[in-house]
Amino acid sequence: MYYACVYIMASAPQGTLYIGVTNDLVRRVWEHRIGAAPGFTKAYGLKRLVYFESHDDITAAIQREKQLKKWRRDWKVELIERENPRWDDLYEALCK
Question: What is the value of pTM for the model shown?
């Protein structure tokens, strides 16, 4: 299991993006997928996990999340496509 993760959710390939941080990636992505909490991800239908990276501690993950949120959109898209060029939903692979 991953201790601390930064992740990117998308509405569709090349769609709306959301960057978050969590200490339980499987649970958090599941919450996004079922619309468990009102807010940005629910309003925009962000249910596809397209990128994540794990960190040794939550402080490093939070710093990385803040860094990515400041990036231009094209940089974020490039990051996603470097690891996941087809914008596949990575959630199912996490649950195996």
Answer: 0.94
